[in-house]
Structures are given as C-alpha cells and as structure tokens.
Design brief:
This protein is mostly helical and 67 residues long. It is built from three helices and no strands. The chain has two domains: 30 residues; 37 residues, no CATH class. Helices cover 78% and strands 0% of the residues.
Length: 67
C-alpha cells in the first residue's frame, strides 16, 4: 500500500513538473515577422525535417538583408 501511495505521489509531481515546463515554454518571446513568414513559406512547400530547417535558415538569412 505504501508503495502505491509513493508511486502515485511521484506521478503527481512529475505531471506537475511537465505542466510547469509547458507553461514556461509558452511564455517565451514572440516570433519575429521573418520567422513567421519563412515558416509560412515552408508550410506552403510542404517541407518537413532537415529540408525545412535548411529552407528556414536560408530564408531568415535572406529576409534580414537590406535591399
């Protein structure tokens, strides 16, 4: 009985820690206009994984260049 009680308390603490981590991540700084635009373009092209990451890196680099 004690083992079940301890395991239940541990599970409760773990779930609270995970929920807290998710809340902290959501409170991070807002994404830039360049980031949002590059993500939008990557979505339109259906890119995922490494190709998406490479596309976004190149897009962000080019987005910041003055004309």
């Amino acid at each position: 009985m004690k083992k079940m009680l301890i395991m239940g308390a541990a599970a409760l603490l773990l779930s609270a820690g995970i929920a807290d981590a998710a809340t902290k991540k959501a409170a991070s700084k807002p994404r830039s206009e360049a980031s949002l635009e590059c993500s939008k373009q990557a979505n339109e092209q259906g890119l995922k994984g490494k190709p998406r990451k490479a596309f976004r890196a190149k897009c962000m680099k080019n987005y910041k260049k003055p004309n």
